[in-house]
Amino acid sequence: MDNQSAAGAREIDQRGDRDETTHERLDRNFGDLLQEVRVAQTGVQILFAFLLTLPFATRFNETTAGDRAVYVVTLLASAAASAFLLAPVSYHRMVFRQNRKRELVNSASRLAQCGLGCLVVAMVGAVFVVMDVVVGLGGAIAAAAAVGVLCCSLWYALPLLGSGGVMASRG
After folding, report:
1. What distance in Å separates the CA atoms of residue 76 and residue 126, rounded to the nearest whole number?
2. pLDDT of 80-101, one tens digit each?
3. Where do the domains of the chain lie?
4. 19 pairs with which residues across the strands?
5. Model-level pTM greater than 0.90?
6. What are phi and psi of 109, to 5 degrees?
7. DSSP character for 13?
8. Residues whose CB is less than 8 angstroms from the CB of residue 167 and which lie 6 or more positions away in sequence, other chains included
9. C-alpha separations of 144 from 63, 65, 70, 101 in Å
10. How far is CA 126 from the centre of its chain?
């Protein structure tokens, strides 16, 4: 391929700050996504392991029926978060070398968002169950609500605020 053809294959992204081909951009986006998923998956695995051992703790039988119901929802949300966050890896293996990178990146992004949504539910539920046992129902509700608001604020509201957000860089 001559220089003119190579230059014609390159494009500037929507913001105009990258000079890369569509394939390069998709590869970069998928690599970035996998790095993000690795971070989230570690937390999900630790939470899931904790939740799997909880029923075997001595005091678990002393929990209320309500706490056990929240526990079940929390455990299932944690399992779902793990499944959603691992799905891009399996998806990639299934479509490897089929020229479906754009589909992979778009689907993997949606799967990761679903995984993070399930993770919020799991974190809120875990905080609720533990706090209910430790400090009672009122403290559990307050702590779980605070964790939910914090996660939703940082994970969803802050990115939607964009450059005008509270944490916008200066200078």
Report:
1. 11
2. 999 999 999 888 888 888 888 8
3. 21-118
4. 12
5. no
6. -65, -45
7. -
8. 158
9. 17, 18, 11, 39
10. 17
